[in-house]
């Protein structure tokens, strides 16, 4: 699969853009685990144009994580075009437009998935961004605003006509938020449309090799994007790659290697921000990580882990949990 001149190889698996998740450290870890393309956290066009320092920091890209896309969002063509130029100056490989974020503070203000209710403006924004930069421009969106307006098949053609280089479709409407099951039948209809010549990337509920193979073999997408299933488990990309290309993707990570990965996330989060805010940032990963699912009588330890506010306290708790799990899985004499 190619986006512009960027060759991602056959059946690429990508890290979805996620606010407060896909910082540069997490993207690099996911890249090392097999992600073929990574995306920044979404970046506000208005904040970029106003030179807000915290927003500008989101543009940092580690050379080792490439290829990487910077994703921008906004509700007006001119600020979006200006933001795209600013993002392009940070030297990403792609510029992605967010037309899919469903949260009220974004969609409710007419950006993200909110533009699914104003397709003419969505297309105007897309044309403005494509014209403003020389990099390939891609779009990520949803099926429609609600179950009565699943417009994605027609919309995909319209976006393609604006000059985008690839389209990612999350198989839910805005009204669904993240509930229910992703509708891969609709994603498949977009890909099956003979008028669509650009790559179609599917997104939604990919958690294992079976789901990944179904996305490619049944629905025919060119690539797959993984979001929530990677939070607290960046090694999912290695597991998914093993399901489609075999052992050449690398051996399955051991328990010790997974805990080492979590510790690395903690250390790099603290180093990137500071101890207090770095630990706050990493709690979402700890809360979601499958490493801690199903451990008997874990409630008190879990609470302590998610309340720890120093590096030493958090690492000590992790060490005790790792030792406990290791002893349970060790072969008996």
Description:
By secondary structure, the chain is of the alpha/beta class. The protein has 2 domains: 2-249, Aldolase class I (TIM Barrel, Alpha-Beta Barrel); 255-329. It is built from 14 helices and 11 strands. Strands 3, 4, 5, 6, 7, 8, 9, 10 and 11 form a 9-stranded parallel sheet that branches. A two-stranded antiparallel sheet has the order 1-2. Helix 7 (152-161) crosses helix 8 (184-192) and helix 13 packs antiparallel against helix 14.
Task: List strands and helices in order, with pairings.
Blueprint lengths: L1 E2 L2 E2 L5 E3 L8 H9 L5 E2 L3 E2 H5 L3 H4 L11 E6 L3 H13 L4 E6 L4 H4 L11 H14 L4 E6 L9 H10 L4 E5 L13 H9 L7 E4 L5 H9 L5 E4 L9 H10 L9 H18 L2 H14 L10 H9 L3 H19 L4
Parallel strand pairs: 3-11, 4-6, 5-6, 6-7, 7-8, 8-9, 9-10, 10-11
Antiparallel strand pairs: 1-2
Helix pairs in contact: 4-6, 7-8, 9-10, 11-12, 11-14, 13-14
Task: State the gist of this model.
The protein is of the alpha/beta class and 333 residues long.
Descriptive terms for the model:
globular, nine-stranded parallel beta sheet, TIM Barrel, two-stranded antiparallel ribbon, 333 residues, 2 domains, alpha/beta
The name of the CATH superfamily of the largest domain reads Aldolase class I
Per DSSP, the total helix count is 14
- CATH structural architecture of the largest domain: Alpha-Beta Barrel
Could you state the order of secondary-structure elements as H and E? EEEHEEHHEHEHHEHEHEHEHHHHH
Q: How many strand segments?
A: 11
């Amino acid at each position: 699969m190619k986006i512009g001149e960027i060759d991602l190889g056959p059946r690429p698996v990508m890290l979805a853009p996620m606010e407060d998740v896909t910082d540069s450290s997490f993207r690099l870890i996911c890249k090392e685990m097999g992600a073929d393309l990574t995306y920044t956290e979404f970046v506000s066009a208005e904040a970029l144009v106003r030179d807000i320092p915290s927003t500008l920091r989101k543009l940092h890209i580690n050379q080792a994580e490439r290829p990487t896309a910077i994703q921008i969002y906004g509700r007006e063509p001119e600020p979006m075009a200006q933001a795209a130029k600013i993002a392009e100056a940070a030297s990403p490989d792609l510029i992605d437009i967010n037309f899919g974020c469903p949260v009220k503070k974004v969609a409710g203000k007419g950006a993200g998935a909110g533009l699914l209710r104003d397709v003419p403006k969505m297309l105007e924004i897309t044309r403005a961004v494509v014209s403003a930069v020389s990099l390939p421009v891609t779009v990520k969106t949803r099926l429609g605003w609600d179950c009565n307006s699943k417009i994605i098949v027609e919309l995909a053609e319209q976006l393609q006509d604006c000059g985008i280089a690839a389209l990612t479709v999350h198989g839910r409407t805005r009204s669904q938020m993240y509930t229910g099951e992703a509708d891969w039948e609709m994603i498949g209809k977009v890909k099956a449309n003979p008028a669509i010549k650009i790559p179609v990337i599917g997104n939604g509920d990919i958690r294992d090799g079976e789901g990944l193979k179904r996305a490619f073999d049944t629905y025919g997408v060119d690539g797959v994007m993984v979001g929530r299933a990677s939070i607290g488990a960046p090694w999912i990309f290695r597991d998914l790659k093993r399901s489609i290309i075999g052992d050449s993707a690398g051996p399955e990570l051991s328990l010790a290697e997974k805990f080492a990965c979590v510790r690395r996330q903690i250390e790099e989060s603290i180093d990137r921000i500071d101890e207090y805010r770095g630990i706050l940032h990493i709690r979402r990963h700890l809360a979601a990580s499958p490493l801690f699912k199903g451990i008997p009588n874990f409630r008190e330890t879990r609470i302590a882990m998610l309340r720890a506010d120093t590096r030493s306290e958090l690492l000590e708790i992790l060490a005790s949990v790792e030792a406990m799990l290791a002893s349970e899985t060790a072969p008996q004499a």
